[in-house]
Amino acid sequence: MKRAVARGLAILATVMAVALYGGCAKAKFQPTPPGPGVPHISNFRIEPPEVESGGQATLLFDFRDMDGDIMDVYISLRREVSNFTVATGIGPELISRGRYLGLTEGTAKEEISVRLSPPPALPSHPREFEGREIDPGRQPVGIKGTRAYEVFVVDAKGQVSNRLHARVTVR
């Protein structure tokens, strides 16, 4: 009984720590309300809209910041759907620093490598079954998936732009 209580408390503590960590990371990049000097982005797209796993894609979005002090471009993976599995929340990750400093408006262009997470490993323990044998080391071929990205910028004053989303299909 004592072990079950201790185990339950350990699980609860872990869940609370993960929730607090996730909340702090998200709170750090809350969008600043629109106003003078706050950067604004629009027209986010990923080209090409379909890429091979491990291939390159270009993120494009228009920006406007009358102070001309955009310092950082961040991207996060909102969601990944592949092989009937949904994974959520990776990032935000800094992909560019200082590249757009001094510009008040324009189109940002960033290159990224796109890949789906590898499918889960098949069990290695022996199983009894009837029928044709399947090689457990063989990975499924032709799995497609969709990645949904989110992008935003932060200026030198720490003001965070609005967030935009775009999807890319990975083959």
SSE inventory with pairings:
Blueprint: H1 2-28, E1 40-47, E2 50-51, E3 55-64, E4 70-82, E5 85-97, E6 105-114, E7 145-155, E8 164-170
Parallel strand pairs: 2-8
Antiparallel strand pairs: 1-3, 3-6, 4-5, 4-7, 7-8
Fold and architecture overview:
The protein is α+β, with helices and mostly antiparallel strands. It folds into 2 domains: 1-30; 34-118 and 142-171, Immunoglobulin-like (Sandwich), CATH 2.60.40.770. 16% of the residues lie in helices and 43% in strands. It has a 5-stranded mixed sheet, with no helix packed on it. It has a 3-stranded antiparallel sheet with strand order 1-3-6, with no helix packed on it. A hairpin with a 2-residue loop joins β4 and β5. Mean pLDDT is 75; it is low at 17-26, 119-125 and 131-142.
Give a short synopsis of this structure:
With 171 residues, the protein is of the alpha+beta class. Strand 4 and strand 5 form a beta hairpin. It is built from 1 helix and 8 strands; from the N terminus they run H-E-E-E-E-E-E-E-E.
